[in-house]
C-alpha cells in the first residue's frame, strides 16, 4: 500500500467535503427550496466556510445540480435494489414493478427526499440545468424500469403517474387523514375495514 501524500489527502478531503456539502445541500434545499437556499446556510450545515463551498462548487447552480443528481441517484439505487431483491425471490414482470413501487413508498418517508423532489420540479421550468438533470433522472428511471420489469410504455407511464400522485399526497399530509377522498386517493382501506 502506498502511503498517502499531501496531494492524495487533499483530494480525499475534497471528496469528503463534496459529499458533506451535497448531504447538507439536500437537507437545506428540501426545507428552503432551491432558489430560497443561501449558500452560507449550506456551508454552515456542512461545517465548512462559504469560500470553501465555492471552491468545491463554483456557483449555487453547480451545487443545486449536484443535489438534484444525488436525489435521482438515490431513487435509481432504491429501484435497482428492489428489482434485484424481487428477482432473487423469483419475481418477474409486474411483480418486479410492484416491488419497485413499494420501495418508492418507503423511500419518500424520508421527508428530505420528498420535499427536495417537489422543489426540483418547481425550479425546473426556470432553471434549464435543473430541468436537464431532472430529465436525465426520469430518462434513467424509464430505462431501468423497462429493463428490470419488462414493463411496456403504458405501464411505465402509470408507474410514473402513481409516483407523482404519491409525492403530492404525501406532501399535503393526505396519508394521515381519515377522510374518504384521502383514503381513495391514497389507496388506503377505510378505518372500519379489518385490513
TrEMBL record:
<protein>
    <recommendedName>
        <fullName>HTH tetR-type domain-containing protein</fullName>
    </recommendedName>
</protein>
<dbReference type="Pfam" id="PF00440">
    <property type="entry name" value="TetR_N"/>
</dbReference>
<dbReference type="InterPro" id="IPR050109">
    <property type="entry name" value="HTH-type_TetR-like_transc_reg"/>
</dbReference>
<feature type="DNA-binding region" description="H-T-H motif">
    <location>
        <begin position="38"/>
        <end position="57"/>
    </location>
</feature>
<dbReference type="GO" id="GO:0000976">
    <property type="term" value="F:transcription cis-regulatory region binding"/>
</dbReference>
<dbReference type="InterPro" id="IPR001647">
    <property type="entry name" value="HTH_TetR"/>
</dbReference>
<dbReference type="GO" id="GO:0003700">
    <property type="term" value="F:DNA-binding transcription factor activity"/>
</dbReference>
<dbReference type="InterPro" id="IPR009057">
    <property type="entry name" value="Homeodomain-like_sf"/>
</dbReference>
<feature type="domain" description="HTH tetR-type">
    <location>
        <begin position="15"/>
        <end position="75"/>
    </location>
</feature>
<keyword id="KW-0238">DNA-binding</keyword>
